[in-house]
Amino acid sequence: MSPGRPPRKSPPADDGLRELVREFIGKLLKLPASQRPKARVLRMIQAQLPPFRGRPADPVIQRALKLRGQNLKTDQICRLINLEYSNWSPGRRASYRRNLKRNISYWLRQRLTKPTS
C-alpha cells in the first residue's frame, strides 16, 4: 500500500453475491446442453450481474440517471425515487444518498469499461 493512499474498504456484499453468480453460471455453461437449465433461468440470473452496454441496470439506478441528466441534486433525486426518504433520520438519508451515488458511479464505470459481446 502506498503511503498517500487510504486503505481499501471492503467491497459491498453485492459484489460477493455477483461473484458467486458468475461462478455458478460458468459451471452451468460447462454442462452438456441436455443437462442445462432453461435459457430463461440463465437470463434471470445474468440480469442480476453488473451492467454493461446492452444489459439493463436496476430500475432505481436507471431512473436516478435520467433525473441526474435533468441537473437535479442528489437530495432531490432521492426524494423522487423513494417517497419515504423525507421521513427518514438525517443519518439514514445520508447513507441512502451515499449508496445511491456509489451505485450510479459503479454502474457508469462498468458500462463504460466493459466490452460488448
Annotation keywords:
mainly alpha, 5 helices, 2 domains, 117 residues
Task: Explain how this protein is built.
- The protein has helices at about 15-30, 40-45, 60-70, 75-80, 90-115.
- It has 2 domains: about 10-50; about 50-115.
- The chain is built from 5 helices and no strands.
- Helix 3 crosses helix 4.
- With about 120 residues, it is mainly alpha-helical.
Tell me the layout of helices and strands.
Blueprint: H1 13-30, H2 39-46, H3 59-68, H4 74-81, H5 90-113
In short:
With 117 residues, the chain is an all-alpha fold. The protein has two domains: 12-49; 52-117. The protein is 58% helix and 0% strand.
Q: In terms of quaternary structure, what is this?
A: single chain
Main beta-sheet annotation: none
Q: Identify the overall geometry.
A: elongated
The end-to-end span amounts to: 35 Å
